[in-house]
Amino acid sequence: MDNHMIAVVGAGTMGHGISQVAAQHGYEVLMWDAAPGVVERAIGIIGDRLAKQVAAGKLPESERQQTLKRLVPVTRWDDLASASLAIEAVLEVMEVKKEVFQELDRVLPADALLATNTSSLSITEIAKVTRRPGQVLGMHFFNPAPVMKLVELVRGEETRDDVVQRAETFAHSIGKETVVVQKDTPGFIVNRVLMPLFIEAMRILEEGIASAEDIDKAVKLGLNHPMGPLTLADLTGLDVDLHVMDYLYDEFHDDRFAAPMVLRRLVRAGHYGRKTGRGFYRYS
Ligand code: 3HC
After folding, report:
1. Vertex 279, ends 241 and 93: CA angle to 5°?
2. What is the position in ligand 1's atom list of the atom closest to the CA of 140?
3. How far, in Å, from the CA of 272 to the mean position of ligand 1?
4. ipTM
5. pTM of the prediction?
6. Among 2, 14, 146, 221, which is most buried by a count of CB atoms within 10 Å?
7. Active-site residue, 117 included
């Protein structure tokens, strides 16, 4: 990016993961969250994670300190006025995203890019609330963002070619690989492939065909996936997974994306997976 200053809006799991990677690659990151204390907590988590790498001899302490210095908590929208790129990672609720994009459009410089980390929502619809729909695109990172190599770059209907190129250059500068999703389509590439895998694993569990442990073991060892689908669903967050499935189902009207009851029941009970300590598995 032009001035090495970016904004990350939303400091939950994805927001702080993205902030960490950008800061480790030399960007100053202005971090904003609607809820008080969330940014400070996120910076604490990043500090702890980097401390583990220092203890393991993988990172010099000086680099840890420098990375943390580049993470700047901000509280007002106007504090984001110097950023040349904003990456939004707030709740997957269209109305919330639209409010955020209106504010970003108001405060960021005219040539700045506005990106959303949405995992499935329409880029075009989000872009429409701004005066610069050509400069809005999806930059979809994967969990855990500091580790996962891919960023899906998603074009909205109006996204300009040079904007996709600038986003690609930025993603490469923070050590990521990119793919371009040429059409704004629900679930893009990865979630469109992943959700039917999650759903089938959950149905196998629901039908009593195998235990959660054996379903995961089968996929891990039989397909060489790093994690089984139920463990991965717990990691990505069952609330997020259900939201993505319901959105894909509404958009495509296709049973491939119909969420299983076992998932809906867990989400209704507040069991969102790893982040709440319980999902298909229990975590201490
Ligand atoms: N945050 C930051 N770093 C993490 C991390 C986290 N949550 N979890 C693990 N790591 C780091 C570790 O520190 C370690 O780093 P090091 O090599 O420098 O020491 C490295 O990752 C490997 O970790 P571990 O040795 O503890 O464990 P594994 O080798 O089992 O790797 C994993 C963990 C990287 C999470 C691996 O199991 C994996 O790749 N799982 C699949 C993840 C995946 O598919 N994610 C995509 C989800 S889909 C999505 O996000 C889309 C959304 O829209 C739904």
Report:
1. 30
2. 53
3. 18
4. 0.94
5. 0.94
6. 14
7. no
